């Protein structure tokens, strides 16, 4: 119903040439449809007035043009931090699902290299600026238009199933999200079959390894791999390693958008080993511009969110965390506002 009404709303200008009262009639039908329960009330918000709708269409068209350029540049440069900066500069997080749809549609029309890059990018975006809901809604949009996509890309259904399955393997989605995605699709939609295919791929033997190499023998990329490397470099430093070597290992990871994981693991290890030497490492990382104040804030926020669980293993976790927070603020690598109500939205604010 929403899709049908939306298509009609888009063609009102043309209809008005033959039916002068088309816009007035349409605006009288919408409230009746909503009141009788067969059109979602959100439709009224999305089509408040003709002027607003036209402005929104222009804004969306401009956004689509800009993200196509951003995605093409990414396929050439393989520079994830630069792409994330470009998206943050656009400042339109409500369009995140549209970005995902465009990314995967463009990747499906290219070679395996770009498909792998798209999957890698999804993981990074989920860690950095996309919510799970953004990702799920993007896949819903893809699956809703799968039949149209198949006109241009013959193997679209199989490719989409691989992207979905890979997203689960990379911890971008969880299996429960696949059920939520299915529930949002129209009944008897071909997209539902694609989701079933993705489930089969995930439950097959050795699914993880196979899906990490689904785009033709690449090494794949998983968040777990990065976490393991971070843990090893921190353990080596904690047991007497040199700070310069630890910093070089962080650089060699080549994933600055994931440095909040370094901060989180360093703070937890400091609590576990009762070794505040970890704070020295974070201080040097900040001084050298290796870890930004935004990444520091994200790392501290993640530890703060898990303090109740940490306190089960380390009874003085909350006291320790308060000490680390004060120390970091005193040294200048955590903003004084951290911990106040205004700081809850800090990672996003600092990023933009």
Automatic annotation (TrEMBL):
> What keywords would UniProt list here?
Cytoplasm, Nucleus, Repeat, Translation regulation
Q: Which InterPro entries match?
A: ARM-type_fold, Initiation_fac_eIF4g_MI, PDCD4
Question: What biological-process GO terms show up in the record?
Answer: negative regulation of DNA-templated transcription; regulation of translation
The protein's name: MI domain-containing protein
Q: What is its main location?
A: cytoplasm
Question: Gene3D superfamilies in the record, alphabetically?
Answer: 1.25.40.180
Any one cellular-component term (Gene Ontology): cytoplasm
Highest taxon in the source lineage: Eukaryota
Localization, per the record, is: Cytoplasm
Domain spans labelled MI: 1-49, 62-183, 225-344
Q: Which Pfam families match?
A: MA3
Range of residues in the leader sequence:
none
Q: What is the lineage of its organism?
A: Eukaryota, Viridiplantae, Streptophyta, Embryophyta, Tracheophyta
């Amino acid at each position: 119903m929403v899709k049908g009404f939306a298509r009609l709303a888009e063609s009102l200008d043309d209809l008005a040439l033959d039916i002068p009262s088309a816009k007035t009639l349409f605006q009288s039908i919408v409230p009746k449809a909503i009141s009788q329960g067969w059109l979602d009330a959100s439709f009224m918000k999305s089509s408040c007035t003709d002027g607003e709708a036209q402005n929104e269409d222009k804004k969306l068209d401009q956004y689509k043009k800009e993200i196509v350029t951003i995605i093409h540049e990414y396929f050439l440069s393989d520079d994830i931090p630069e792409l994330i900066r470009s998206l943050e500069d656009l400042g339109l997080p409500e369009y995140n699902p549209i970005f995902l749809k465009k990314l995967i549609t463009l990747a499906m029309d290219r070679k395996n290299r770009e498909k792998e890059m798209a999957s890698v990018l999804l993981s990074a975006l989920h860690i950095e600026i996309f919510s799970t809901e953004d990702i799920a809604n993007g896949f819903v949009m893809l699956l809703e238009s799968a039949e149209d996509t198949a006109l241009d890309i013959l193997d679209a259904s199989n490719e989409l199933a691989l992207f979905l399955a890979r997203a689960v393997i990379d911890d971008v989605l969880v299996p429960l999200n696949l059920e939520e995605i299915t529930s949002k699709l129209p009944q008897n939609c071909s997209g539902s079959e694609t989701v079933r295919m993705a489930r089969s791929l995930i439950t097959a033997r050795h699914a993880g390894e196979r899906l990490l190499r689904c785009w033709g023998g690449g090494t794949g990329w998983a968040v777990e791999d990065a976490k393991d490397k971070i843990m090893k470099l921190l353990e080596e430093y904690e047991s007497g390693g040199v700070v310069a070597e630890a910093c070089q290992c962080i650089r060699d990871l080549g994933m600055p958008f994931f440095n909040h994981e370094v901060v989180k693991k360093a703070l937890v290890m400091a609590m576990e080993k009762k070794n505040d030497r970890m704070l020295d490492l974070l201080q040097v990382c900040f001084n050298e511009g290796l870890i930004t104040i935004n990444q520091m804030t994200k790392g501290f926020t993640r530890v703060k969110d898990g303090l109740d669980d940490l306190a089960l293993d380390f009874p003085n976790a909350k006291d320790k965390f308060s000490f680390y927070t004060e120390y970091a603020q005193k040294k200048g690598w955590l903003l004084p506002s951290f911990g106040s109500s205004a700081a809850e939205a800090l990672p996003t604010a600092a990023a933009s």
